[in-house]
Hints:
This protein is mainly alpha-helical. It has 2 helices and no strands.
Amino acid sequence: xxAPLKNALHEGVADAIGFVLGALLGWQLGLTLxxxxxxxxxxxxxxxxxxxxxxxxxxxxRLICRELLARWRLRQNKS
Length: 79
């Protein structure tokens, strides 16, 4: 496997893991604070706020995993 393909695979896996874990954490935070988007069929302020928690979790999880991947790559290149 070539280096560009390997880098793309690492980035894709890091994005997927960060996206899913961040969404789950955002959903749980929303549930804890009383903003449930998933189990409600209404479209009120509480549900939209719960959705925003999920979306923010997706983005933050992806960013954190990308940063961890970049740091891991730096350590791999130094050794």
